[in-house]
Amino acid sequence: MSSKEGSGGFRKRKHDNFPHNQRREGKDVNSSSPVMLAFKSFQQELDARHDKYERLVKLSRDITVESKRTIFLLHRITSAPDMEEILTESEVKLDGVRQKILQVAQELSVEDMHQFHRAITTGLQEYVEAVSFQHFIKTRSLISMDEINKQLIFSTEDNGKENKTPSSDAQDKQCGTWRLRITPVDYLLGVADLTGELMRMCINSVGNGDIDTPFEVSQFLRQVYDGFSFIGNTGPYEVSKKLYTLKQSLAKVENACYALKVRGSEIPKHMLADVFSVKTEMTSASNACLCVNRRPEGGAS
């Protein structure tokens, strides 16, 4: 047996060769030394940054929930008799969402937004989706990123009762003005999610006998898809992933328009939704078969 191994066959650690009473005792650390004071300040800074990150995550979750509720409300327009009433109610909900975004802007007033972007990006994307959906219903056009950012400039009057974040000295120097800018990536991802809501709006419109909205949505989605195609693989990875879903939504709407154009005159309005759903299922099944039957070149048949 090797001298380095004990009776149990295990290799002894290096410090086990020294008697217990001869091991070096740890010296008492001077808590007032410059090194310890520096590390304490680092600890406080990291704790404050972590707490702020958690607060932003909670605010982002609230923004996401309220934005989704606004989208669900806007989907009622296709079946509700009074569209203006729903638009007014949706504007009130979006004002509540902007109050949450105001709290985010106050948290980031003296910080670099990109350091905390991951904590708030989900909520900002959902807000862009809700605002752009409302704007499309009103104007049948796409809201620009500049128009969204103009709505996210807050003054002291906008600091309502819902805001519980105390103002800091840096904010007072800014005369009570806060601003939060939507990044281009958040804007693109929000618009990509908008296409799915427009596809659902098209389905609801067909079910209610509205044959004009599907053609308007189809033309709009085609323009959005062409715009995303120009970005291609040069854009962020998340954008390229959502491009496939965007293409699927466009295909479903175009199939609905095809069915309405060819057979719309001979099908009662209350049966148009059934024709649209059958057409969508057939298209999805054919796409799945193409993916399964597709084989690489030179592969075994």
TrEMBL record:
Mg(2+) binds at residues 129, 197. GO terms for molecular function: metal ion binding; sequence-specific DNA binding. InterPro entries: Translin_C, Translin_fam, Translin_N, Translin_sf. Residues 1-32 are annotated as: Disordered. One of its GO terms (cellular component) is perinuclear region of cytoplasm. GO terms for biological process: cell differentiation; siRNA processing; spermatogenesis. Residues 16-28 have a biased composition (Basic and acidic residues). It is found in: Cytoplasm, Perinuclear region; Golgi apparatus; Nucleus. There is a cross-link at residue 279 (Glycyl lysine isopeptide (Lys-Gly) (interchain with G-Cter in SUMO2)). Keywords: Cytoplasm, Developmental protein, Differentiation, DNA-binding, Golgi apparatus, Isopeptide bond, Magnesium, Metal-binding, Nucleus, Spermatogenesis, Ubl conjugation. Gene3D superfamilies: Translin, domain 1 (1.20.58.190), Translin, domain 2 (1.20.58.200). Acts in combination with TSN as an endonuclease involved in the activation of the RNA-induced silencing complex (RISC). Possible role in spermatogenesis. PANTHER family: TRANSLIN AND TRANSLIN ASSOCIATED PROTEIN X (PTHR10741). Belongs to the translin family. Ring-shaped heterooctamer of six TSN and two TSNAX subunits. Interacts with GOLGA3, TSNAXIP1, SUN1 and AKAP9. Interacts with the homodimeric form of C1D following gamma-radiation. Interacts with TSN and C1D in a mutually exclusive manner. This is Translin-associated protein X.
